[in-house]
Write a structure and sequence with these properties.
Radius of gyration: 21 Å
Helix content: 25-40%
Oligomer: single chain
CATH class: Mainly Beta
Number of helices: 3
CATH architecture: Sandwich
CATH topology: Jelly Rolls
Shape: elongated
Number of strands: 8
């Protein structure tokens, strides 16, 4: 997804030197990802990250992880809605991209269910 690359660009857009030029995106865009991840046999989900949404005047982002049976369903949508971000609006866009980057680092957690371990030991599959 382009969000992390754009965050780096905004963070390094000569803010230290005082040259605060507007950001121009190449195009408006709508990017959607959907992933289904099957849990290994015997694993159960401990925790899912909460659904997340962020927006600014120029972009939107949302993500969600759900579990059904033994499959994790992950969806996210990233949209750039305007091509030019004026220099006076850079801090809001920077905050948006920081939030998106942090949200992308959240992960579900899973563990092996104790009954699966017991069953494997009983069947001689585990030492």
């Amino acid at each position: 997804m382009e969000a992390n690359r754009l965050e780096n660009h905004i963070n390094h857009s000569d803010e230290k030197s005082g040259n605060r030029n507007p950001i121009e995106f190449q195009e408006t865009t709508l990017q959607s990802d959907m992933f289904d991840i099957a849990l290994p046999p015997g694993y159960v989900v401990d925790e899912l990250p909460p659904p997340f949404q962020a927006h600014c005047d120029y972009a939107r982002y949302k993500s969600e992880v759900q579990v059904k049976d033994t499959v994790l369903h992950y969806t996210r949508t990233y949209e750039i809605t305007d091509l030019v971000v004026p220099s006076e609006k850079l801090s809001g866009v920077r905050d948006f991209f920081h939030q998106v980057a942090a949200a992308d680092q959240r992960r579900p957690s899973a563990h092996r269910h104790p009954l699966a371990l017991r069953d494997e030991a009983h069947l001689g599959l585990r030492r």
